[in-house]
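Posting for a labmate who doesn't have an account.
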Amino acid sequence: MIVGVDGSPEAVAAAGWAARESALRGVDLRIVYADEWPDAETIQHSSPGARRRWAEELLDEAAEAGRREHPALEIETRHLSGRPAGVLADEAAEAGLLVLGSRGLGGVRGFLLGSVGMATISVTERPVVLVRAPGGPYTPERAAPAGPTRDVVVGVDIDQGFAPLLDFAFQEAAPRGDRVVVLYGWSIRPVVRDASALVAAEREVSPDIVWRLAEALRPWRRKFPSVEVAERSPIGSPAQLLLHATGNADLVVVGRRARRGPWGAHIGSVTHAVIHHCPVPVAVIAHD
């Protein structure tokens, strides 16, 4: 597993999450700092030697924190040069999972905020998990009280391929003892804006959607018989429904198209909204 750090509170939270996840999975952890040197700001305020020492101290602190919490965990550090998005994507190609800090819509510093985080997601086909710092405006501490069972919430579109999302969600939920909540939000586009017609249309369409979702989940229920599954297919905005489902969640899983178009990789509007507003860690899974 790979985690990118930059000294920000979000990156510290990401390193902690990655260490716990690595210990849970029984895999090694690599902590990476990508130094895009030189640039105008670093030339003005620090020397190459000072910058290098700062980076090494940052990596050592992150590794030591991980070893304190998980003494048996194998942790490696790497200080690399280059554009962070490309460096992290290259590192992720060797690993099963890449973890980054995320500020959502806040923050103005650090290489792990918006543009670079989004760029990293766009150039790697490996799963990427974005983690918030504790105590911020959209953090789990301010979410609804947790119940006895935690959730891994996964947003799907039954008209698209979502097998990689379910694979990831169930594999995450099984060792934690979490429930998988599979959520499909849909809408009706009526010819007329009549309330009774909408109710009738929903009554007619809803059973088919419920059946299709249940059928799609059968292989994962068989493969993971110990994992509790909840299927939800309400009418509504998928992004809003996913965000409302985070109160008892450990993780939210969303997808993006792996195919690249003329303007680069496509990150859909639902995934974009969840990345920026979700209070809990978000896993972005590339799929066909």
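Reply:
Got it, the structure tokens are right above this. Confidence is low (pLDDT under 50) at residues 105-113, 137-146.
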